């Protein structure tokens, strides 16, 4: 009976960790990432986008210089602009979050493009990404969700 209680307690702790993982990740306590999502790629697509909100509670600007993830061969930082009513994406060297500010990354603004899947993504799957910043690395756990530009 004692082994069952330990097993059940461990399972509950693991489920609580997994359930909250997509909504917050921190490296120093001053940088947090909320509601990280990766869009389920369209059929035969070689890439997809993501969205998340980055909270910079530090006294200095946060510069995201690169993103890596073992599920992707290439990850790029992009911004979106609108020219003559057409949406255009442009690669950028970094994305900056001002001190004591938050920045929502969406497909309609600055965002992360994930390309070259090492294996297919599954709806609801949790995927790890690492944001490489001027304040250190931040590990983010993102959930794969249906494509929706909001």
TrEMBL record:
Specify one Pfam family: PCuAC
Per its UniProt record, what InterPro entries does this chain match?
LpqE-like (IPR007410), Lxx211020-like (IPR058248), PCuAC_sf (IPR036182)
Entry annotated with the keyword S-adenosyl-L-methionine: no
Q: Which SUPFAM superfamilies match?
A: DR1885-like metal-binding protein
Q: Which UniProt keywords apply?
A: Signal
Q: Which domain of life is it from?
A: Bacteria
- Where does the signal peptide begin and end? 1-24
Task: List the PANTHER family.
Answer: BLR7088 PROTEIN, COPPER CHAPERONE PCU(A)C
* Name by which UniProt lists this protein: Copper chaperone PCu(A)C
């Amino acid at each position: 009976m004692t082994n069952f209680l330990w097993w059940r307690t461990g399972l509950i702790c693991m489920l609580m960790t997994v359930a909250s993982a997509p909504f917050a990740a921190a490296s120093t306590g001053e940088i947090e990432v909320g509601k990280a999502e990766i869009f389920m790629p369209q059929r035969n697509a070689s890439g997809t986008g993501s969205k998340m909100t980055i909270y910079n509670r530090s006294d200095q600007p946060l510069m995201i210089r690169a993103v890596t993830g073992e599920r992707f061969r290439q990850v790029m930082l992009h911004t979106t602009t609108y020219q003559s009513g057409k949406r255009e994406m442009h690669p950028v060297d970094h994305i900056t979050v001002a001190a004591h500010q938050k920045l929502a990354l969406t497909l309609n603004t600055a965002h992360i493009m994930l390309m070259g899947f090492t294996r297919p993504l599954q709806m609801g799957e949790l995927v790890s990404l690492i944001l490489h910043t001027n304040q250190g690395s931040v590990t983010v756990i993102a959930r794969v969700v249906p494509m929706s530009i909001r």
